[in-house]
Amino acid sequence: MKTTGYIATILLIVLGLSGCYDLDVAPYDKVAQGNYWKTEADAKSGVMGVYAQLKSNGAYGYMPLFDTYSDIAHGPGGPVEQGTYNGAYDFLVQNWKDTYDGVQRANTVIKNVSGMPIDEKVKNNVLGEAHFLRALYYFHLADLFGGVPIYDESWEVSESFNEMLLPRNSREEVWQFIIKDLTLAIANLPLKWDAADYGRATKGAAYALRGKVYLYIKNWEKAIGDFEEIVYNKTNQYGYKLYSDYLTLFTSAGPIPGDYETIFAIQNKGTTDNLYGMPFATLYGTRGTYGGGRGTCLPSVTLADMYEEKDGKEFDWNNYIPGYNENDAIKKKAFQATLNATKQKLETIPDTTLLGSIYRNRDSRMMQSLIVPYSYYNGYIVGTGSKKQLYAIAAGTTVANGFIQFDKGWNVYFYRKFVPIEDMGGEITNRNHTPINFPVIRLADVLLMLAEAYNENNQLDEAVVELNKVRKRQSTNMPGLNSGPAWLQVTDKEEMFERIMHERAIELIGEGHRFSDLRRWGLAMQYLNNRQEKDFTGEIRFTRKFSERDYLWPIPSEEIQRNPALKPNNPGW
């Protein structure tokens, strides 16, 4: 486990949490320890460094990539997608290192703040935050790697780094350690923070994360208890509710007025003097997105076809274009256009009226989450200004000529969710620091997890109620399950589970949950192995590979070389 990176670096850029506490000198270096941890300001700024690590690519900063490892999105066909990675794969190694760095930052805060002679309320709040964040980091490790060594606050990295050679704890022991941390966090975190401290962990966030842990270990009753606590305000008035406009929630700089849906999010900033964002514009955007997106993460055709008709019926292309599903030539004809000689306008076009009706008459989350063919996107060209772009399927389309441009030339869907609209009113100045807050836990996710726990606990009616809340969001307004039509009827646990899978896919697209969902459900082999990723004209872009060994990632090779006690590696590795 490498933790020396931040020990050797005294200066730390802190995540902007809208609060007034900046961490100019990190209290993580042995030299600094004697001069730090004296005042309330030290304690508060110290815990900001634990939050800051969340944005590291291997911690939660690259969570957008994780959907590409599932069936609802894809990238260019990298090592994880094609099953060619190993224990030396750089992103895997980065996940281990960056997440353990977060653990060690939390440990440093817990160890030092516990003995500080400061106001007890301030102390307890900071300790609650540190325990919550340590739990969040360990959750990431347990999810990806299974059993890992547990290092708590008794380990002083600056003094004991060479001795940190513990063997792996079991996965169950890690889950229980996380639960213990979250139980302490629940006892110490406030219900709410003042506006100046928006974004810091709360009691509700700790309940939500603990409920998620219980869900992962299949303790349905305890999961239900934690989720009900915050959904039904059992002992406190948490005040969470779904935000009315789905798209606004994921395209606005935070904090968003009236957003009581976000339970815990990574706070992102993007102005020149406050660059603490995540790379949504780079990963999700196209060439005409602010700063020029790369389209690294792309919604899959499978996801696009999941969106139901507005009446809740399952969508089928053949109902609109006979033979579409079976014939790639028909697919191409349905979308293909040509440009005129100047490449400024469309010369020939397909039946865009038909295509428009196909897309618009679906679950509204489709058009709110995806850029579909022959729809518009309002992007921005640095040095030029706002640029309205049409997504046309034709050779020679470029941003300069007013079209969406994707350098790979694939006929794919693009994200609208998390992608900056124009320059976000001046809030974005760097594509790698998109100022849209990234939800780690939000109410819709909790409602769907509660529905799942109810369903597994044989409480079908209660499960339907929670899932229907998500479908009835004001801007979504989809008909509820068991609301009359035969195609919406759900009568048993198996049918309800299929509905939960579907709803989690389309509601949470782009938020990085699907890969973990498929693995914890034991369905990753079924849904991913030998799966051909095609674009919407039928072209095969790559074939996925997923084997039993991929349910857990291997412990990084270099970590085993440094600490042989980490053996044996995960099965298959």
Question: Can you put this structure into words, describing what you see?
Answer:
By secondary structure, the chain is mostly helical. Among the domains are: 4-201 and 555-566, Serine Threonine Protein Phosphatase 5, Tetratricopeptide repeat (Alpha Horseshoe), CATH 1.25.40.390; 280-420, no CATH class. It contains 23 helices and 14 strands. It has helices at residues 4-7, 30-33, 40-52, 57-61, 79-82, 90-113, 120-145, 157-160, 171-188, 203-216, 220-231, 246-249, 280-284, 301-306, 328-335, 352-360, 365-369, 443-456, 460-471, 493-507, 514-520, 524-528, 557-562; strands at residues 73-74, 262-266, 269-271, 274-276, 298-299, 338-339, 346-348, 370-371, 376-381, 385-390, 414-415, 438-442, 532-534, 540-543. It has a two-stranded antiparallel sheet. The chain has a two-stranded antiparallel sheet with strand order 2-12. β9 (376-381) and β10 form a beta hairpin. α6 packs antiparallel against α7 (120-145). It is globular, with a radius of gyration of 24 Å.
Primary descriptors:
573 residues; mainly alpha; Serine Threonine Protein Phosphatase 5, Tetratricopeptide repeat; two-stranded antiparallel ribbon; 14 strands; 39% helix; disordered N terminus
Task: Provide a brief overview of the structure.
The protein has 573 residues and is mainly alpha-helical. Among the domains are: 210 residues, Serine Threonine Protein Phosphatase 5, Tetratricopeptide repeat (Alpha Horseshoe); 141 residues, no CATH class.
CATH topology of the domain at 4-201 and 555-566: Serine Threonine Protein Phosphatase 5, Tetratricopeptide repeat
Task: Provide the residue-averaged pLDDT.
Answer: 92
Class from helix and strand fractions: mainly alpha
Give the CATH level 1 class of the domain at 4-201 and 555-566.
Mainly Alpha
Shape: globular
| Separate helix tally | 23
Number of strands: 14
Note poorly predicted spans. Answer: 1-32
